Amino acid sequence: MKQGEVVITEGQQYQRLYQIQRGSCSITKLGKYLGKMSAGEIFGEISFLEGSGAAASVMVEEDVELSIIEGYYIKCLFEMKPGFAGRFYHHLCTILTERIRK
């Protein structure tokens, strides 16, 4: 995606997770800049977990390459490998905890 493109719009519902492979994105909430994410970081998890609208907007700051995992496939994986769900949710909790501490 190119600089200036919107990846996620605050309030809209998305059932997918995104991971930045290259480039960076900015995060805004109610029009206020909250921070920047870069390669290796994951976003979209709050909307995925809650099944609600996105908590913030994400816009491409520097041309970005994203990996996108649709929620449907994650749920299928949980059915195929039940033990994976606990590890997956633990990892998401770790990510959210780190963000809160910043």
Concise account of the structure shown:
By secondary structure, the chain is α+β, with helices and mostly antiparallel strands. Helices cover 35% and strands 39% of the residues.
Query: Could you tell me the strand content as a percent range?
Result: 35-45%
Radius of gyration: 14 Å
User: Which term fits the overall shape?
Assistant: globular
The secondary-structure element order is EEEEHEHH
Q: What is the total tally of β strands?
A: 5
Low-confidence stretches: none
Helix percentage range: 25-40%
The overall pLDDT average reads 95
CA distance, first residue to last residue: 27 Å
Sheet of most strands: 5 strands, antiparallel
- Class of secondary structure makeup: alpha+beta
| Number of separate helices | 3
